[in-house]
Design a protein that fits this description.
heterodimer; A: alpha/beta; 7-stranded beta/alpha barrel; three-stranded parallel sheet; 10% strand; globular; disordered C terminus; B: alpha/beta; Rossmann fold; 2 domains; seven-stranded parallel sheet; 13 strands; 15% strand
């Protein structure tokens, strides 16, 4: 039996506006760019892909099944800029053939820096999915499939998840195949689903590559490769960015046609079926435990964290950001907390990557900045402004008791200098 | 094919280097020497130059002298290592970066000195060197002298650097029927903005038109050559400059005896319109609004130096801006060792070797996007020269965020090592080969 498990990652970052050290305004995000990109991707990818998958689900009754993980930051953007995408996701949810996974609401690296923050963000995301799609996520995927033993233990201890997803990295699995269900080291209940990166990347990265010997990839050919797993594995985990459809692989590459015919070709083999991650968990028991002492991810050939934390600027920016956690939360100011969390979106750090800077490869394609240095400067300037906003309510509270007139004066001058400030904040 | 013999019309050699042109000629020729290319390097020399006395070089005093005498190679230690290069000089007051005005001033100065030191010196100057002529006449007289200097010896190719040598290049190439390559290190548009000197422009244009190939130091310059001089793109090749590694890196701040508790932001270059000194000062003013412990150093001289001093005072930042005047050799290294950041806000910079030298000395750089060097440097901060706000923003960022300065410095220093004169020379050799093949086919 080979169960095909499709999971699509759906995410768009929140791009910062150009922010210099001289800026005082506390509005950090580039609304124009964010909305226009959101609409563009909605038209090229989300809408056509959602409609296509909805068609296929209806065509095959309950036999075609898929899973999504949609970040909170994208849900907010879709809600504002492309509400029609929300209604198609809603329609997909209603088919009963679609599972929604849990992740950090802000697509953050919080699992590495603050457990409290991590748990809060996962809970916020779970609640949002419940509210929007009427189902409670039972499977967790971390940002960029970042994973190690400690994370598995933490996720198990949250008591609400049956499984966690990660990359089927060669250096972790060795001779073992990603086409089975595993158990994380030190976990008793949680199951581990590992991405079949070879078959996943055939679609996500190589599909339109004309120098690839297998080009052009047809649904028939791909179904044959999947069927070859029979007798040698239980599951084929096809994990990829949803933007593969229409955005990374443009429509004229034939990616939509490929997807339209794939389910039919796969189901032609009697031993194949489609399952969502939760159904995989129900159907298969772990065959072995997997030990991942060091962090892995699904990024680049290194499958490590160097795309986000590979240089001094990245690590400095992220440390400075999480160092503010207590200060930020102490303000109880929702706007400040929300801004701080939006700065946690992993893409901000990805833009600062100098790894392949000179080659102008994939990193550049997704980068709104001319250089990693510009992105670091911008981020740090924003962070500085955010930090300056935290200091104010505390100042206001201590002084307001003793000298109201002075406080009023202080408050007004600061407001004039620093821009918007909420006097109601403070602990 | 035998080793290529090049008749090269160049400028300045160490230690008398006044800017990027001399550095480029030296770097390129040295690398060509190592590739085994035979170069006859012709450069102008002002006889009554104040340097002439303390340099132990044997120059022919006049191009008309016997070939055997004028072939005397330079005996300077540094140049002695160049096995395949023969130096020849032509008496001429031409200097790089001259404008007709500065040329005239220098001539007058030189005449004055001559009268003082040498009342009966006219016997030394039996040639056609005419101190009364203007710069254009001199450029053409230089061409005549170059033709005579080339004599009957065989050269494969003629290679001329920047406009003052183009007429010489054209003349030698035409008389000897050998292909001409003109090497564009800067154009009249870079030096003068839109106020171009028509005669200089005409000379540049004729040089580019008559050349079999034009070498531009960047795509930035190549675009100007195509759009402003109407030269066909097929004829224009880009060869980037390199940088000389300065080898011994054990030179730390401690050894310079400088103590400093203030950050230093450096402008190093000719203080002329082309280099954008006013943008540097306006940015400095903005930086000082948010950062205090910083000084701005302007190293160099030029026709805008007095204006720059005045401007610093007008902006109320006079106490934060230091002017060093023109620096050379060890002084340059010393200032780099002191600097925390190098800023090049050039309005129009064909290449810009100085930022590479800064990076080589572990100083991170901010460079204008209107420069050739921004095409080859990834690990530099880039700005539009007119965007004073952004220049200031980036200066503050480097001063304020140590990881930025560190990453720029480390990656930049590494990147600079990849820009070698050897590669530039190889690329030139390749262009020689192609040009010769085409040229010989046509004959």
């Amino acid at each position: 039996m080979a169960s095909i498990c499709f999971y699509f990652q759906v995410h768009q970052p929140l791009r910062l506006r150009h922010y210099t050290v001289f800026d005082k305004n506390s509005h950090y995000f580039d609304d124009y760019k964010n909305s226009s990109i959101c609409r563009k991707v909605a038209n090229k990818c989300y809408l056509p892909a959602n409609r296509l998958l909805l068609d296929i689900i209806r065509q095959f009754g309950g036999r075609f099944r898929i899973a999504y993980s949609i970040t909170g930051v994208l849900l907010e953007q879709l809600d504002s800029f492309s509400p029609e995408v929300m209604s198609t996701f809603d329609a997909l949810a209603e088919t009963g053939c679609v599972e929604f996974l849990a992740e950090t609401y802000y697509h953050s690296l919080s699992s590495l820096y603050s457990r409290d923050e991590f748990v809060e963000q996962v809970n916020k995301h779970t609640e949002t999915i419940e509210y929007l799609f009427g189902q409670t996520p039972r499977v967790f995927r971390n940002t960029e499939l970042i994973y190690n033993n400690d994370l598995a233990v933490l996720v198990e201890s949250m008591g609400k998840f049956d499984a966690i997803l990660t990359e089927g990295a060669n250096h972790i699995l060795g001779f073992r195949s990603p086409n089975f269900v595993y158990r994380p080291q030190c976990c008793r209940k949680l199951k581990l689903l590992m991405k079949n990166y070879s078959l996943s990347d055939d679609i996500a990265f190589r599909f339109s590559n004309r120098s690839w010997p297998e080009w052009p990839l047809t649904a028939e050919k791909f179904a044959r490769w999947v069927s070859d797993v029979n007798g040698n594995g239980n599951v084929v985990n096809l994990f990829m960015d949803y933007e593969t459809f229409g955005e990374h692989q443009w429509e004229d590459t034939g990616i939509f046609d490929f997807m339209r015919h794939l389910p039919e070709q796969i189901l032609r083999h009697p031993d194949n079926d489609f399952k969502t991650p939760s159904e995989i968990v129900q159907a298969y028991e772990p065959v072995d435990t997997v030990d991942v002492p060091h962090l892995i991810s699904w990024a680049d050939t290194e499958r490590d964290l160097s795309a986000w934390l590979g240089n001094a600027m990245q690590s400095n920016a992220i440390h400075e950001l999480y160092r503010l956690e207590k200060k930020i939360k102490k303000t109880s100011d929702e706007k400040i907390i929300s801004d701080w969390r939006k700065l946690q979106v992993s893409d901000h750090f990805y833009y600062m990557c100098t790894k392949y800077f000179a080659d102008g490869d994939v990193h550049k394609y997704f980068n709104p900045y001319d250089s990693p240095y510009d992105s670091y400067i911008n981020f740090m300037n924003v962070l500085n402004n955010l930090q300056s906003r935290c200091a104010k309510p505390a100042l206001l509270n201590t002084k307001s008791i003793t000298n109201k007139a002075l406080t009023d004066k202080n408050y007004l001058t600061e407001q004039a200098i620093e821009g918007v400030c909420q006097p109601s904040g403070g602990s | 094919m035998d080793r290529i013999k090049v008749f090269m019309l160049g400028w300045e050699f160490p230690p008398f280097i006044s800017g990027g042109l001399g550095t480029a000629c030296y770097g390129l020729t040295k690398a060509m020497d190592q590739l085994g290319i035979q170069v006859t390097f012709v450069l102008p020399r002002m006889v009554s130059s104040k340097f002439a006395t303390h340099v132990k070089l044997e120059f022919a005093t006049h191009a008309k002298l016997q070939a055997s005498e004028s072939q005397m190679p330079m005996s300077d230690l540094k140049l002695g290592e160049l096995k395949n290069v023969v130096f020849r000089t032509i008496n001429s007051p031409l200097q790089p970066y001259s404008t007709p005005d500065t040329y005239q001033q220098r001539i007058e100065e030189s005449l004055r000195q001559k009268h003082i030191s040498n009342s009966g010196a006219t016997s030394q100057y039996s040639g056609p060197l005419d101190y009364n002529s203007d710069m254009y006449t001199e450029v053409h007289r230089y061409a005549e002298a170059a033709v005579e200097l080339a004599g009957n010896e065989h050269y494969d190719i003629v290679h001329a650097h920047d406009w003052m040598t183009y007429p010489a290049g054209i003349a030698v190439s035409a008389i000897r029927e050998r292909p001409l390559i003109v090497h564009v290190h800067s154009t009249e548009f870079d030096r003068s903005g839109e106020h171009v000197n028509q005669m200089i422009y005409d000379i540049e244009r004729e040089g580019m038109e008559r050349a079999n190939k034009v070498i531009a130091v960047s795509h930035f310059t190549r675009n100007i050559i195509i759009s402003r001089y109407g030269i066909s793109g097929e004829k224009v090749e880009v060869v980037y400059n390199g940088v000389e590694r300065n080898g011994n890196d054990d030179w730390t701040l401690a050894k310079t005896g400088i103590e400093k508790d203030e950050k230093i932001v450096l402008f190093l270059g000719r203080i002329t319109m082309q280099k954008g000194p006013e943008y540097f000062l306006h940015a400095a003013k903005k930086v000082l609004e948010v950062v205090d412990n910083v000084k701005f150093v302007m190293a160099g001289s030029g026709d805008l130096i007095h204006r720059a001093v005045e401007m610093a005072a007008e902006l109320g930042i006079g106490h934060k801006v230091l002017f060093t005047g023109f620096l050379r050799g060890e002084e340059v290294r010393r200032i780099y060792k002191m600097a925390d950041l190098y800023v090049m806000p050039s309005v129009s910079e064909p290449f810009g070797i100085a930022p590479l030298e800064a990076l080589d000395n572990d100083v991170p750089v901010i460079i204008s996007k209107q420069s050739g060097v921004s095409e080859v440097l990834m690990h530099a901060l880039k700005v539009d020269f007119w965007d004073v706000n952004e220049i200031a923003n980036k200066i503050v960022a480097v001063l304020k965020y140590p990881p930025l300065e560190m990453t720029l410095r480390n990656h930049g220093n590494f990147e600079v090592r990849k820009l070698r004169w050897k590669d530039s020379a190889q690329r030139c050799a390749q262009i020689y080969g192609e040009t010769l093949m085409q040229f010989d086919k046509c004959i």
